[in-house]
Amino acid sequence: MSQVFEGYERQYCELSTNLSRKCAYASILNEVEKQLKISEIEAGLEEAVILIRKMDLEARSLQAGVKAVLLAKLREYKADLNKLKKEVKKITSADTNQVAREELLESGMVDVHMASADQRERLAMSTEKLNQSSERIKESRRTMLETEELGVSILQDLHQQRQTLLHAHEKLHGVDNAIDKSKKILTAMSKRMSRNKWIVGSVISALVLAIIFILYFKLS
């Protein structure tokens, strides 16, 4: 509940009680004293109207739930203020029939104004709900766009990672081919070295045998 509204409400209730007492007291006064008292009452009514306007502005500036409660209270205070105005008119008017006719007309006007106020309030609440729905739709759309952008970014990252893996796989395949070629070369070299060993061994053996034969013939 708004503390500002409660302050205005307290002032109005005190003022309304005071004005009711003055109206009851003015009806038993003589003409001169009655006019003075009526002047005081009219000044109090003007102050009450100002307090009603302040409460109305304060209530309409609050959130929807609190605003509805305060506006309902405010309608009661407006009805109370209209009653006070009628009491003043009864005191100031000498023609009772005229006062009765004015009360009937004012009653109808009050009903019309209250109905219009209710319609305006419902329209304001409907507009506020529509604005809230629009904000929720905008927020949902914003969230959807952000999710879509995030999904696109993730897909791009996955595509890059796939390309990197394919490139690494191609490099590994090339390394495997190079290793196979190196194995074949080493195997061929090993075979050649083995053949060369046999050839060198055979040549050395032949030379040794030749030397032995030569020495044998010379010594004999």
Q: What can you see in these coordinates?
A:
- There is one protein chain.
- With 220 residues, this protein is mostly helical.
- The chain has helices spanning 3-26, 31-60, 64-92, 96-219.
Order of helices and strands: HHHH
The beta-strand count equals 0
Gyration radius (Cα, Å) is: 55 Å
Characterize the main sheet. Answer: none
Overall residue-averaged pLDDT value: 80
Structural class: mainly alpha
Strand content range: under 5%
Question: How would the global form be characterised?
Answer: rod-shaped
Total helical segments: 4
The stretches of 5 or more residues where confidence is low (pLDDT under 50) are 94-99
Rounded to the nearest angstrom, the distance between the terminal CA atoms is 142 Å
Helix content: over 70%
Oligomer: single chain
Name its key features.
220 residues, single chain, 4 helices, 0% strand, mainly alpha
Summarize the topology.
Blueprint: H1 3-26, H2 31-60, H3 64-92, H4 96-219
Short description:
The protein is mostly helical and 220 residues long. The protein contains four helices and no strands.
